[in-house]
């Protein structure tokens, strides 16, 4: 049965992200599970552009983008699933951290990581997608081991 948080993730990041997050929750260790839920809460509570937090709204933002940037609904859905929307001034922007990506990047998620390595949305998406990046996994473990004094 789909739980309430899963419906929230689908509305925010799309069905693919929900599936990947569920897969990682069932396969990952306790540190990864805690990190995933921590990221979801952080993204819900502290995104810099909450007005465009919904996946569907970000897909719609691409209707005004040039065909050179987005030439199909599939591309728009993929960018929106990565938290990106189209800004009228011509850029791709992350709704969580507001990073502005250079247009024309062939791998927006990689570009996002490069420009804003501390964004918790890209950390969540990379972890959910099964990344085995050592820096990311060390981050996850370090967050788990942090103690309240
Ligand atoms: Zn970001």
Helix and strand arrangement:
Elements lengths: L3 H10 L1 H13 L2 H17 L8 H7 L11 H9 L2 E4 L3 E4 L5 E2 L6 H8 L4 H9 L5 H12 L4
Antiparallel strand pairs: 1-2, 2-3
What would you say this structure looks like, in words?
By secondary structure, this protein is mainly α. The chain has helices at 4-13, 15-27, 30-46, 55-61, 73-81, 108-115, 120-128, 134-145, and strands at 84-87, 91-94, 100-101. The chain has a single domain (1-145), classed as Inhibitor Of Apoptosis Protein (2mihbC-IAP-1), Chain A. Helices cover 57% and strands 7% of the residues. The protein has a three-stranded antiparallel sheet with strand order 1-2-3. Strand 1 (84-87) and strand 2 (91-94) form a beta hairpin. Helix 4 (55-61) packs across helix 5 (73-81).
Give a short overview.
With 149 residues, the protein is mainly alpha-helical.
Offer a few descriptive terms.
149 residues; mainly alpha; Inhibitor Of Apoptosis Protein (2mihbC-IAP-1), Chain A; three-stranded antiparallel sheet; 3 strands; 7% strand; globular; binds zinc ion; transmembrane; transmembrane helix; membrane; BIR_rpt
Tally the helices: 8
Number of strands: 3
Give the helix level as a range of percent. Answer: 55-70%
Task: From the 3D structure, determine the CATH topology.
Answer: Inhibitor Of Apoptosis Protein (2mihbC-IAP-1), Chain A
Summarize the biggest pleated sheet: 3 strands, antiparallel
Specify the CATH architecture: Orthogonal Bundle
**C-alpha-based Rg, rounded:** 15 Å
Distance between the termini: 38 Å
CATH class type: Mainly Alpha
CATH-level-4 superfamily name: Inhibitor Of Apoptosis Protein (2mihbC-IAP-1), Chain A
Hetero ligands: zinc ion
| Average pLDDT over all residues | 91
Which structural class matches the secondary elements? mainly alpha
Estimate the strand proportion: 5-15%
The sequence of SSEs as H and E is HHHHHEEEHHH
Q: How does the overall form come out from the CA principal axes? A: globular
């Amino acid at each position: 049965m789909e739980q309430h948080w899963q419906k929230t993730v689908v509305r925010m990041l799309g069905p693919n992200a929900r599936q990947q997050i569920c897969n990682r929750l069932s396969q990952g260790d306790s540190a990864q599970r805690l990190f995933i839920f921590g990221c979801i809460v952080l993204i819900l509570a502290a995104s810099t552009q909450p007005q465009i937090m919904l996946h569907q709204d970000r897909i719609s933002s691409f209707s005004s983008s040039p065909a050179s940037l987005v030439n199909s609904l599939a591309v728009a859905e993929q960018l929106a699933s990565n938290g990106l929307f189209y800004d009228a001034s011509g850029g791709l922007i992350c709704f969580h951290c507001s990073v502005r990506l250079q247009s024309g990047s062939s791998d927006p998620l990689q570009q996002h990581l490069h420009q804003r390595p501390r964004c918790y949305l890209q950390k969540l998406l990379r972890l959910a997608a099964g990344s085995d990046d050592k820096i990311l996994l060390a981050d996850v473990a370090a967050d788990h081991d942090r103690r309240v004094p």
